[in-house]
Amino acid sequence: MLIYLRVLKESFNFAINALKNNKLRTFLSLVGVTIGIFSIIAVLAAVDSLKKEIEGSISSLDNSTIYLGRFSFGPTEIPRWKSEQFPDVTYEEYQMVKRSVPNLYTAAYTLNVASETIKFEDKSVSNVEIGAVSFEYYDIESLQIAYGRFFNESESNSGSNVLVLGDEIANSLFSSPEQSLGKKVRLYGRKFTVIGVLKKEGSGLFGNSKDTAVFLPVNAARKVFGQNNKSLFPFIIIKPEKGIDNNEFIALLKQRMRQHRGLKPGEIDDFFVNQLQGFADFIDNITGQMNVIGLLISGFSLLVGGFGIANIMFVSVKERTNLIGIQKSLGAKNKFILFQFLFEAVILAIIGGLIGLGLVFIASVIASQFTGDFQFILSIENIFLGTFISAIIGLISGILPAISASRLDPVEAIRTGM
After folding, report:
1. DSSP secondary-structure letter at 230?
2. What is the pLDDT of residue 235?
3. What is the per-residue pLDDT for 11?
4. 220 to each of 129, 137, 154, how far by Cα in Å?
5. Which tens digits make up the pLDDT trace of 68-110?
6. Crossing angle of helices 410-417/321-329, nearest 10°?
7. Cβ atoms of residues 224 and 188 within 8 Å
8. Is the Cβ–Cβ distance between 395 and 342 less than 8 Å?
9. Quick check: 236 pLDDT over 70?
10. Please, are residues 277 and 64 in contact by the beta-carbon 8 Å criterion?
11. Residue 272: which region, alpha, beta or left (left: phi > 0; alpha: psi -120 to 50)?
12. Distance CA 241, CA 191 (A)
């Protein structure tokens, strides 16, 4: 064990001397490894950060949550021209789902309406996202109330002119969010009473956030836009009870919808059942493909770096041929010479890898300053992965030079080096 520690120490010293004595050559050799590790870990860090941000954006929703509507969240075999003819889900169908679908925890009816301007006295905020939802949305989305409350079942069903403000909207219209409670704001040319303010959430992946949203009873919006407005894109958001078989639940849901719409056997469903678990799997698939493509592209840089390390090691063997001959003449075994050069190659590669990791860290800090709430993360796993890949590249690149050094004849080595 001690002899290997000694070999490691000597190899480290040789590597450091190579860096000091041949700065330009070593720099050019390590650039490839540095760029390769930087590329690979930067790609992995970016994809991990993107995936974490997406997961954070949908973390408030359970993966079993279902969106029922005439639009599909992902690829579908149904032609677009045909799906565009599908009818919207109706408020009556939302009531039917609540009434007749077994193992249902809750369901909410929502309308996707256009952004609007909201006013209070002489202040106004434009491009406000409007969430026209039924009262059950509060439990499905796990909304957090900072002041006041969310609208109740009675207010939701009757379409009362009440609303809940996002934190940013409340701060823009009032001197403090708590002062907004009970105040009347103007929306759609009507007066709405503020009954609650949401906790500050921060911006999401694509800039969307409940901080810039306003929630009002869906039936209040239906009074404004009418019952059959094709521009509203309604959805029924459904949350099954925990612990049930989701596939069985979806099958029963489809059966109830087909019965309600009078679809005959053989006719295709004229609605889509979108499950968040499917969306999460779709995101995993996309990020996985991004990882593979990024790794393939970055692999070429790392390949160049490996050739650079192999080149410097062959030169190192050539320069130290005389020393190798002396070591072998004094009794050094082939294994000792082999490990000596392997350790040196690995150490040089790790140095290049650590520089690459340092550059990734610096780049992630700088990038995070320009992307607001989106944070680039260099995880401990990626740091270890970068170091491990560097060591493997050093090992592979150094194996041939190390073997050639260990097989040198001591007499010929001394004579060649003289």
Report:
1. T
2. 94
3. 63
4. 15, 15, 12
5. 998 887 777 888 888 888 888 999 999 999 999 999 999 999 9
6. 140
7. yes
8. yes
9. yes
10. yes
11. beta
12. 38
CB 73 within 8 A of CB 273: no
Tokens of 162: 């009440």
Lowest mean pLDDT of 13-17, 105-109, 253-257, 321-325, name the range: 13-17
DSSP class of residue 373? T
CA atoms within 13 A on the CB side of 190: 15
Domain ranges of the chain: 2-57+281-417, 87-270
Long-range contacts, stretch 375-382, CB < 8 angstroms, 24+ apart: 375/49, 375/53, 376/45, 376/46, 376/49, 377/45, 377/48, 377/49, 377/52, 378/41, 378/45, 379/45, 379/48, 382/41, 382/44, 382/45, 382/48
Predicted confidence at residue 373, as pLDDT, reads 57
User: Which residue is it, tokens 């140095």?
Assistant: 351
User: Which of the two residues, 14 and 272, has the higher pLDDT score?
Assistant: 272
Collapse the DSSP code of 131 into the 3-class scheme (helix H, G, I; strand E, B; otherwise coil) and give the result: strand
Question: Could you tell me the CA-to-CA distances from 363 to 28, 128, 319 in Å, in that order?
Answer: 22, 34, 38
Cβ proximity of 146 and 153 under 8 Å: no
> What is the chain's length?
418
